[in-house]
Write a structure and sequence with these properties.
The structure holds two protein chains of two kinds. Chain A is about 25% helix and about 30% strand. Chain A is of the alpha/beta class. Chain A is globular. The N and C termini of chain A lie far apart (about 55 Å). By secondary structure, chain B is of the alpha/beta class. In chain B, about 35% of the residues lie in helices and about 25% in strands. Chain B contains nine helices and 13 strands. Chain B starts with a strand and ends in a 5-residue tail after the last helix. The chains are: A alpha/beta, B alpha/beta.
């Protein structure tokens, strides 16, 4: 662990794979920028890899003041031990006050290993980050701490976690909960090339094979999402969801219940265990609105809910409440949309057969 | 060769079955109304250890850290085929975050001869997935997280397939190793009737003591302790004593346990009350729907 260090920078771990910068660190940059500005410190990104200098430039465009660039042939592929060692060394050298990671498969594998070595606190899967003051039970006030906000207990409560005595303050942040900033190519920043000390010993794994499967749908990028729940009734009837989505140029999605029932592939799942989305319009069809589902979509700008149960919890967060049979309502919506002359947009995905 | 596996398990409130009763009116969780269950992915970790034992032989030791009531999941593990069960329980463990928990568990695991440590990917009460990797670091061994398939065990090397979000990766490493296992890895077997018969009376010292106290309300403390000692050694002789370890026994440095060992603290807890300020009722007829679509177009929500 490092000492409480008020001048410490705010850091983002810039996850990249084979030279491609992931979305999550980019999403993190806008929030981290605000945290750094509030604290009056610099925002830095740490990028590890082999020949990844162009990523460092990109990170400056997305808001970094500084980029710590750790390049080494042995860092070409992500491995827990090698990456943890390099980041641990950087943390000790530069003493940042906050270190943020995307809550991706890699981030959730890496961050706890670093936290354990650094004997520092780590909060998993945050959905929001703020700067605030904390008063302890004995009356001490700790100013300007990182408030790490996360759902807990299966999404039924929201906990705000802090660490005031052992730094850095570290958190992993859920994918898709923060909007992507626009790059500003005129931004200037400093790239600090690190002299990486690493040996084969820090690479205990041998990666034999890797298969990346692109997601069938990009829910995070969709402006409009049409989601079907268990109430849709069957895989055949789920065609209604595809039809409504297609005529709006929307992305089709589903609740966990609908995915578990086999109506649609799990790539389309929205919610606590699926994707978190914040579209302009979210149309929930036959969705009861369990808290775990709401956790992934309550930030939508407008929500239309269609359900025949007037007590469905989804209605509590809906802007437009339609109590009725979805088999009647959805075709009427499709008709109304077509009549209004909305041109048929290219659908983001096509229905699976 | 045979492999000794340590499986770490946790008793958790069943957060997936939150009903009206389980939530208080103010939106907080009524823990007493939630059934306590075997953390689902820990069952997958135990099943993977069982499959290894079935094929290669070896011993399975199950460890949980928790309240005395967590002995339920230890017994359940014995019913499913574990050989040995250890309850790490101590009031000084209270308020441990993932860092302190992994430290305490590492002290316990170091007392055991193992080739592999298996954990569920994450527990459904916190969903952090942190204790596995933190424990691996404290043990100084590599980790393979999100294991969905064991490909091969060959002498001192293991090959496994791990889920990496959008895809998978096959990796190989030398033992000892820590695996975190996902729910897709296997279908956990149910308890075996024979094992239930064998282990249904397996107990921890605390359970023995509670039972004796309930049956001898008038007896002096010294006599009770004598009875406890006697019954425990009897159970131990039959292989039915669930080991109970405290922080002194595992040799933990108390400054790294409980509240003092936990850098993360709770600032506040809020109930989830999601509600919009304004909900418009739309009639499920053509006029109602048409007006709504019109409004959405006017508001530029629909292009």
């Amino acid at each position: 662990m490092i000492d409480v260090n008020r001048d410490g920078e705010v850091w983002v771990f810039a996850e990249q794979h084979k030279g491609h910068l992931e979305d999550t660190p980019i999403e993190l940059m806008s929030k981290a920028r605000r945290l750094a500005d509030t604290l009056g410190v610099k925002l830095a990104a740490a990028v590890l890899g082999n020949e990844v200098k162009d990523i460092a430039t990109k990170l400056i465009h997305y808001g970094a003041d500084k980029v710590y660039l750790a390049e080494h042939p042995l860092l070409a592929d992500y491995q827990t031990n090698s990456y943890a060692k390099v980041i641990y060394d950087l943390i000790h050298k530069y003493q940042p006050q906050i270190v943020l990671y995307g809550a991706t498969a890699t981030g959730r594998d890496l961050a706890p290993r670093i936290a354990s070595a650094a004997k520092a606190g780590l909060t998993a899967d945050c959905t929001d980050l703020q700067i605030g003051d904390h008063k302890t039970t004995n009356g001490d006030t700790h100013k300007n701490l990182l408030f790490q906000v996360r759902p807990a207990f299966g999404g039924n409560i929201i906990a705000t976690i802090i660490n005031f005595d052992r730094w850095p303050q570290m958190a992993t942040v859920r994918e898709g909960v923060m909007p992507m900033p626009e790059p500003d190519v005129s931004r200037k920043g400093e790239i600090i090339e690190e002299n990486v000390q690493i040996s084969q010993q820090e690479l205990p794994l041998e990666i034999l094979e890797e298969h990346k499967r692109p997601k069938k749908v990009n829910l995070k990028a969709a402006r409009i999402i049409v989601t079907g729940g268990a109430g849709v009734g069957s895989k055949d009837n789920f065609k209604l969801i595809w039809d409504l989505a297609n005529c709006l140029g929307a992305a089709p999605a589903a609740t966990r219940a609908a995915v578990d029932l086999g109506f649609i592939d799990s790539d389309h799942q929205v919610g606590q265990t699926g994707t978190t989305v914040r579209p302009s319009l979210y149309i929930a069809v036959g969705v009861s609105g369990a808290i775990q589902h709401q956790a992934g979509m309550s930030q939508s700008q407008k929500i239309i809910a269609i359900n025949n149960d007037p007590d469905a919890p989804i209605f509590q967060i809906a802007h437009y409440k339609i109590i009725g049979d979805l088999n009647v309502v959805v075709p009427k919506m499709i008709k109304a949309i077509k009549e209004k002359g909305i041109k048929e947009l290219t659908p983001l995905t096509v229905a699976e057969t | 060769m045979a492999y000794n596996c340590v499986v770490l398990i946790k008793q958790v409130p069943d957060t997936k079955r939150i009903t009206g009763k389980a939530m208080n009116d103010d939106g907080t969780v009524n823990r007493s109304a939630l059934p306590a269950i075997f953390n689902p992915e820990d069952l997958n970790a135990l099943e993977l250890a069982m499959q290894i034992k079935d094929e290669f032989g070896g011993k399975i030791t199950v460890i949980t850290m928790g309240l005395p009531a967590a002995s339920v999941v230890l017994r359940d593990s014995l019913f499913r085929g574990a050989d040995d069960a250890i309850l790490v329980t101590d009031q000084r463990c209270a308020a441990s975050d993932t860092l302190a928990t992994s430290y305490i568990l590492s002290c316990a695991v170091k007392k055991i001869d193992y080739d592999m440590v298996l954990c569920g990917r994450q527990a459904i009460d916190g969903d952090t997935a942190q204790v596995g990797p933190q424990l691996a670091e404290k043990l100084g061994i590599p980790q393979i997280s999100y294991v969905e398939k064991l490909i091969e065990l060959n002498g001192k090397t293991i090959t496994a397939r791990r889920n990496i979000g959008a895809g998978w990766q096959q990796v190989k490493t030398k033992l000892p190793v820590l695996l975190t296992v996902t729910g897709d890895a296997n279908e956990p077997r149910v308890a075996a009737a024979k094992k239930i018969m064998k282990y249904k009376n397996a107990q921890t010292t605390i359970e023995v003591e509670q039972k004796i106290k309930a049956e001898n309300t008038e007896a002096a403390e010294a006599n009770i302790q004598k009875l406890v000692k006697h019954q425990c050694s009897e159970l131990d002789g039959k292989g039915l004593l669930i080991k109970q370890w405290d922080l002194d026994f595992v040799g933990a440095d108390l400054s790294w346990c409980g509240r003092s060992g936990s850098p993360t603290k709770v600032h506040r807890i809020q109930s989830v009350v999601l509600a919009t300020k304004e909900t418009k009722d739309i009639k499920p007829n053509e006029q109602g729907i048409s007006d709504m679509i019109h409004e959405l177009i006017e508001d530029k929500i629909i292009a």
